[in-house]
Amino acid sequence: GVKLLLHGLCSNTTVKSLDLKGNNLRTVGAEALGTLLRQNKSIRSLVLEWNSLGMWEEGFSFFCQALGANNCLQRLDLRNNQINHQGAGELAMALKQNSSLQELDLRWNNIGLLGGRALLNCLHSNKTLKRLELAGNNVPSDILKAVEQATDHNQDRQTILSETQNRAYILSKEVLSLKDEKTKQFLDLMDTIDKQREEIARSGRMSAARVSQLQEALDEQHSIMNSLKAKLQMTEAALALSEQKVHSLGELLNATKQEQTSMAERHFLDLQQQKQEGADREGKLLHDLSAASEKNLLLRSQVDELEKKCKVQQDQLFQVKQDLTNTTAELKLRVVQAEEHLETEKRRFKQSLEDMESLRLKEVDHMTQHMEASERSMQDRIQRLEAIRIALEEELSQVKAAALTERGQAEEELIKVRNQARLEEQQRLEHLEEKLRLMTESRDEAQNCCLKQKQMVTEAQAKANQLSLHADGLRRRIEELQQDLNSKEEEKVTEVNKVKVELQEQIGHLQAERTAQEGLREKIAALERQLKVLSSNHREALLDKEGEISMLLEKLRMKEADISRMREEEAQRASFLQNAIMAYVQGSPLGTHGSRK
Fold first, then answer.
1. Which of 31, 143, 463, 527 is most exposed by smallest CB count within 10 Å?
2. Which residues does UniProt call coiled coil (predicted)?
3. Separation CA 102–CA 100 (nearest Å)
4. How far is CA 529 from CA 158, 215, 245, 522, 534, in A?
5. Which one, of 310, 327, 322, 303, lies nearest residue 538 by Cα?
6. Domains of the chain with bracketed CATH
């Protein structure tokens, strides 16, 4: 029945959790579960309590292989399944390949010491398992504590990854908002430039209309002067014909002359008024041009200030990056020194073990003679030594736990300091782009923030030094304890073997700590890469700003050139009009007559 049920669930996509507790599954059921895990991609929780799957080795191995190939299951309950150390080894191999399982419950089985070690070793390569329950399996307390530390480390790693992803998403949103604001500012500048162009075109049209009006007025004056010339010619012909009537018509001629002089004076006044109006209009145009040039100068000054502020921001970013690189280099040097010190201590310890083995071989013969007499006393000593050994193991475990917690706190503080530095840099960039007029106050605030960051870095370095000193003290204590153990090992051969086993376990713990340190180094490298990517993005944004500013400067230069050309053309037109009017006035007969009077 289980086989049919699981075969039907292989193609199902809606079931998320499956509970098969207490169904007495055998090899066929275990194989069906393996095929389900290989084919189904929707089940997230699987409960298999009270099924004795560990009794069937072939079926359980097939189930473990399918678990290693699955990438969807997140919770697995295998309580009370009679799993031995071999089954635990197969589970460990599956966990090395699996990348989705987060909770595994193995309580009340027969895993033992070997199975616990296998599961602990698989946690070094598995980075997703957050919870592993091993109660009621005859597993030593040291291994249980190490497993808890590894799962806590995986949980902290996943939380850090989620935080970094969220922060990267927030940063991308902020960058997009900054780009939108920049585009809006650029569009506003283009609108203002277009408005200025329209105003200049309007002023040009007005000036052209005024010039056309002046030309029409001049044409009218030319027509009037031509009519006057025709009248004068008619009068001269009439004078030639009426030479005989000169005396009678003299008074009429005087009257006509007076009328002509009054008309000429009126025309002269009209011309002067038109000249004054043209001069006023030219003054207004010059005033408008001067105002436009002043606006252009103000825009240039603002662009220069923006360029200076961008340079200051680049210098500040470069200083912060240098500080971060210095701190990372110092931390790496300290880690290398600590590793070298550990290697030297290991060599010394190996040499002391070799010396102790040679002494032991020499004293074995001597001890066999006195064994019978000292059996009773040795039993009492053995009990005391075992009590002392247990106490020492507890102290060592406590010291290691304290060292791990202190290291984790130091790493968390470093991460917090870096995150604070990133957030502060982003806030500075936003503040500088939004409020350009208040740059002096923002500079002071940025300097204060840099000082705070340096203080935080110095505090972190001091804490790291304190931790190194504390580790040195612990190492000295360990050396003293090892000397005491060596002095007691000479009394009995059996205790030497026990101490060797304990030392091998300690070496395994140190290797686990090394792997943890390597993982932390990889995290630091990944964070540094993210910082480099963010700095490159900021640099590209600044380069885009500089390109936009250069384009605006070129447009302003083109406008200034157009304005200067308009001025020159208007000045030439005014000079041409003045020359034409003066030439016309000087060449006309009215002008000569007025000059004679």
1. 463
2. 211-245, 289-569
3. 6
4. 19, 73, 116, 11, 9
5. 310
6. 1-139 (3.80.10.10)
